[in-house]
Please model this.
Amino acid sequence: MKTALRAQPLRSLMNAEVASRVLTSAADLALILDREGVILEVWPGELIEPHPGWPALVGRRWRETLAPDSQDKVEPLLKEASGGRPGRPRELNQRVEGLGEVPFRFSAVQLDDQPRVMALGRDLRPLADLQQRMVSSQQAMDREYVRLRQIDTRYRVLFQVSSEGAVVADAASGKVLEANPAAASMLGEAPKGLQGKTLLELFEPKSRPAVQALLTALEAGARPADVRAQLRGQKEGEVTVAATLFRQTGSALTLLRFWPGGDAATAGAARGSRMLATLDVMPEGFVVTDEDQRILCANAAFCELVQQANENQVIGQPLDRWLGRPGVDLPILLATLREHRSVRNFATIIRSDFGPSQEGLVTAVAALDGMTPCLGFTIRAVSSRLWAAQSKPASPRSVEQLRELVGRVPLKDLVRESADLIEKLCIEAALDVSGNNRASAAQLLGLSRQGLYSKLRRHGLPEFDPT
Model:
């Protein structure tokens, strides 16, 4: 026969310590109130940071410890709890000295038949922080959306009003995705009529190999030169074709531009292409950098000097990685370049990643007035004997000449050259004052006559009065 189990009162199962743990686990804050709404006990939960402001609430009317906008919510909450029915939770801002206003969601229950009420509160600060982060994220997304819309609008305007034909195509399939009015006009079709056609179909059959070679070089990562081709349906006249590869939303796209030949713009472009082609094959290294000395482009000779395979391995790298003694040569060169706009035969060293350093001479120019300020450097390696001759110019005759040697000649050589210059000037002054009398000049300088003759020979001055 089974023995019936009789439930024991919950109060008999919990002592004060157990009750405290239950309260702090069930809510972030528990308040015990009397019938007048005076706080008798305060039980902060485990997630509430300890603070002397919590015990200070004991003995005060709960209404008086709340923010003004929450005080009118206390009476309905306590009235519903005293009526023996569960009340609707209210959001109240609890004032705590030293912490300010802390938002809670409070529920209230009556403790048995005792005229006491327990208010259980859930801390809303994590939720408020989450809501604030959501609002901030939404605002950031809105700003980014507006920025992207503005960029898209500017792109559309430029794309539509450009006098050059412009076609955007999928790089993998070569099919046209979009064409501007200029391209459609040159081809004698509507812009939407070009969509879906391949790039090669836009040109005459005899011009397609040149265009295909341009696209192939572009896909290989090279920077191909512009080509001349005939558009489809045009039996006379050619256009200059340029291609650019870019990425958008994970897809590779090709921008193909073409413009008629024979006008001033084409002549300028051709001249620029010839100049770039010449610079690319010249035997001396040539580098163009931005104002922060990061390489924008370089020719094959420079890549060979620094022992890099191709231009792609040096683009974006700082120039001082390979040029000059670290922290010494390049700052001097750049300071002189910004002041005088050009520097000739600046003696320095050229470093490489896989070989020894070698002496070199740099000629540089600053082009800072254009839309894209840049610096150009011509760099050539020289033999040790030639470098010594270049790095040790004639003795300076003035302070300005001496300043120009800083960075090109070691300090000890500068000091020696300066001492020799001062000594020679003093001897010439003594000869001038004494009327070219060697004996009087030696006395003025505090030298013996033999000593004066020795210094005259050293500086290339006549030992005897030429008159």
The CA atoms of residues 106 and 325 lie 71 Å apart.
